[in-house]
């Protein structure tokens, strides 16, 4: 046995990992005592509520015992399965452990949201095209009906003060103020979820949140507790693959898809039912940042997505989404083409079931008061209208309880629906009374039914008068903590996603896994996640293992071989409108105003937004300068047109602007604009230069014949920009070899 290694307490040592020393590779099964504090940790002194010392060690306030219990000390056999009426039945409200676990979780953070704390909202309108009328009786889906809406976009993991552009899932929640009451479509920008059952939601969020001893990392999944959980709880792997892709770092909220995640039930006028999945399709296209841009943006402008959304609305470039549904038969087994529709970790590929557009949403107003609207808005998947109902999806079933429970603490009582942003825009007579923050002044004396003293008011609505109807689906089964066998497939959908990506997206996915796992302290965690990747795709596993300097393991579950790639899952390969794209017009202080106006006119005529970038603010002639070399960055723009190669300005020195520290070659050009052009070239963005402005390309080492680099007069450059930006980036600038299959 090797002697114990001695350490000198006076010398600094590398930081240890967040968990116990040398955690094992496999999930531990032998009961052990709670971990002791680390040498660098010490809890608060143990005193009574009135300040008297107790003499107990600080650990006395920590968790006790070797076994999982309820808050009252009752030992539990499992915390992974909710109590249901049969494996496929609804979750039962009598599950006291689930209610305790979810209720406590819902009230963990005050006053900001436990999840989705970092959010941005906007108002708009939804107009239905009538295509849903044959499957849904909801009034707001009838042809040409216009419904006011409020949308809140958000990140999941970070706090309110975190950055917009972190790698994370985004919330995409929409409140429809319909004539039949509020309907909330509470979704994400990723169509699958980390977990299959709502009882696991506290676990995944505790894992991804900052580690509780150090409160780091902020708004990041690249740490041990997250990968410890997802590599052990392998049903998370499909969502993890999406999270490691470009989908998790959108360029803009305006270019982000939305998904309802769950399967819902629609009911038509005849009482016939269908199963549906919701999709928001942005007309601006689906587009993401590259990894270097996200890191730059987080430092340069943590409010990047919020600013971009509001700038677009202010500019009149209103973002638009089409709402679509995948419609599937409401069969007894609730399966479609072998895919379990009750499993929220599964998608139905659009090639198997196309998305049918049922209406269009336009965002055209910013909030008047961010707190009153964006912070106080609440959503609930249980806010349904006649014609839309839930299914027995075990994650959705728990969300129906959790969302309304959360608001009681966060919004200070049960009357949160009376806050203006949450208030329905139709008559409300709910017989609910009193409570904190009661703003209504109720009349009458009989808030109960039946009554005669108020003349029988409020009356119940008959089914023929469009009342809400819970679909009378049969329910039967023993009370069990089980789930269907079809839920046990944890890898094939991740394989489907990985193999549907283009080569460049695949390259980004590999880099993301390598980066994130490289940030984990514990090798056992990295090895365990590599094992999951081996079960998903051998080539991906080998590439990531190579980057980590670890051997690629053999799969324990052979990767699916019958997976047909879904082109709809790739962001690359289609074209999109260029309306609202941002073009930097780089000029010098000596550039003629007429030349600048000509460039602006060409960009505006193409439906894009020009931004004049000059050495200093103010005006050049009558042309207003939008950005200065000091204040601007490449991540703000989709393309750059250099009208004149600017000479170094007076403040182009590192002591005044650190960006001025970039070396240049050839003719002297302001180094900050050289840096901007070089970054945009590296990020595969379109670059244009006037005939006399090519010195900046030389200084930035950008070949004039490289893909996406255009030299010519402004009108000629902008014409080519409209074609280049239709694909978002110049993806063929840096060819990537296709992965082996």
TrEMBL record:
SUPFAM superfamilies hit by this protein:
Class I glutamine amidotransferase-like, Heme-dependent catalase-like
Catalysed conversion reaction: 2 H2O2 = O2 + 2 H2O
Q: Which Pfam families match?
A: Catalase, Catalase-rel, Catalase_C
Query: Which protein family is it in?
Result: Belongs to the catalase family. HPII subfamily.
What name does UniProt use for this protein? Catalase
Q: So what EC number does this one have?
A: 1.11.1.6
Which Gene Ontology terms describe the biological processes this protein takes part in?
hydrogen peroxide catabolic process; response to oxidative stress
List compositional bias (Low complexity) regions by residue number: 43-58
Q: Tell me where in this chain the Catalase core domain is found.
A: 69-457
Top-level class of the enzyme under EC nomenclature: oxidoreductase
């Amino acid at each position: 046995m090797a002697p114990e290694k001695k350490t000198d307490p006076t010398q600094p040592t590398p930081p240890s990992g967040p968990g116990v020393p040398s955690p094992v590779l496999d999930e531990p099964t032998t009961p052990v005592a709670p971990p002791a504090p680390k040498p660098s940790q010490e809890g608060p002194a143990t005193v009574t509520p009135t300040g008297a010392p107790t003499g107990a060690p600080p650990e006395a306030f920590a968790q006790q015992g070797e076994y999982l219990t309820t808050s009252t000390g009752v030992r539990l056999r499992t915390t992974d399965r909710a109590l249901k009426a049969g494996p496929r039945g609804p979750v039962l409200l009598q599950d006291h452990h689930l209610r305790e676990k979810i209720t406590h979780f819902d009230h963990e953070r005050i006053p900001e949201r436990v999840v989705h704390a970092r959010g941005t909202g906007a108002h708009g309108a939804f107009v239905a095209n009538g295509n849903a009328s044959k499957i849904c009786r909801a009034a707001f889906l009838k042809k040409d009906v216009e419904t006011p809406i409020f949308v809140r976009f958000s990140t999941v993991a970070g706090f309110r003060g975190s950055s917009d552009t972190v790698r994370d899932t985004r919330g995409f929640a929409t409140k429809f103020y319909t004539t039949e009451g509020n309907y909330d479509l509470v979704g994400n920008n990723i169509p699958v979820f980390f977990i299959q059952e709502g009882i696991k939601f506290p676990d995944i969020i505790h894992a991804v949140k900052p580690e509780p001893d150090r409160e780091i990392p902020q708004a990041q999944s690249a740490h041990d507790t997250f990968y410890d959980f997802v590599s052990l709880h392998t049903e998370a792997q499909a969502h993890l693959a999406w999270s490691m892709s470009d989908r998790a770092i959108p360029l803009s909220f305006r270019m982000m898809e939305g998904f309802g995640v769950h399967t819902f039930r629609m009911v038509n006028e005849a009482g016939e039912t269908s199963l549906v999945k919701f999709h928001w399709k942005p007309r601006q296209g689906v587009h993401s940042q590259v990894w270097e841009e996200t890191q730059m943006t987080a430092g340069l402008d943590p409010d990047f997505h919020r600013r971009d959304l509001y700038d677009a609305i202010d500019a009149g470039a209103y973002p638009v989404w089409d709402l679509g549904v995948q419609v599937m038969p409401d069969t007894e087994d609730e399966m479609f083409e072998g895919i379990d529709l009750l499993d929220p970790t599964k998608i139905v590929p659009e090639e198997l079931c196309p998305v049918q557009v049922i209406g269009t949403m336009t965002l055209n107003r910013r909030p008047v008061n961010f707190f009153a609207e964006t912070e106080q808005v609440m959503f609930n998947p249980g806010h349904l209208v006649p014609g839309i109902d839930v299914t027995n999806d075990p994650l959705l079933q728990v969300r129906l309880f959790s969302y309304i429970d959360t608001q009681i603490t966060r919004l200070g009582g049960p009357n949160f629906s009376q806050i203006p942003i949450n208030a329905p825009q139709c008559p409300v007579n709910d017989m609910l009374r009193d409570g904190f923050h009661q703003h209504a002044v109720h009349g009458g004396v009989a808030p109960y039914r039946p009554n005669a003293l108020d003349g029988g008011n409020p009356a119940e609505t008959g089914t023929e008068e469009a009342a809400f109807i819970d679909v009378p689906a049969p329910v039967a089964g023993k009370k069990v903590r089980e789930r269907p066998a079809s839920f046990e497939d944890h890898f094939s959908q991740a394989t489907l996603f990985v193999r549907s990506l283009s080569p460049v997206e695949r390259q980004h996915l590999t880099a993301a896994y390598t980066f994130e796992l490289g940030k984990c302290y514990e090798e056992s965690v990295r090895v365990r996640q590599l094992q999951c990747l081996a079960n998903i795709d051998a080539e991906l596993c080998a590439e990531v293992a190579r980057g980590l300097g670890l051997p690629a393991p053999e799969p324990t579950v052979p990767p699916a071989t019958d997976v047909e790639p879904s082109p709809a899952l790739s962001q690359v390969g289609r074209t999109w409108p260029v309306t609202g794209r941002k073009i930097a017009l780089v000029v010098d202080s000596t550039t003629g105003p007429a030349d600048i106006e000509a460039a602006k006119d060409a960009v505006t005529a193409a439906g894009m937004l020009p931004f004049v970038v000059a050495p200093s603010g103010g005006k050049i002639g009558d042309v207003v300068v939008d950005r200065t070399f000091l204040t601007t960055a490449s991540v703000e723009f989709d393309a750059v047109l250099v009208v004149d190669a600017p000479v170094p300005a007076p403040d182009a020195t590192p002591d005044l602007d650190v960006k001025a520290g970039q070396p240049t070659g050839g003719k002297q050009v302001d180094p900050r604009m050289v840096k901007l052009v070089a970054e945009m070239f590296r990020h595969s963005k379109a670059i244009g230069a006037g005939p006399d402005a090519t010195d900046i390309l030389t200084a930035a080492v950008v070949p004039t014949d490289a893909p996406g680099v255009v030299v010519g007069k402004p009108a000629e450059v902008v014409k080519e920009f409209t074609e280049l930006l239709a694909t978002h980036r110049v993806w063929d600038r840096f060819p990537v070899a296709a992965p082996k299959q």
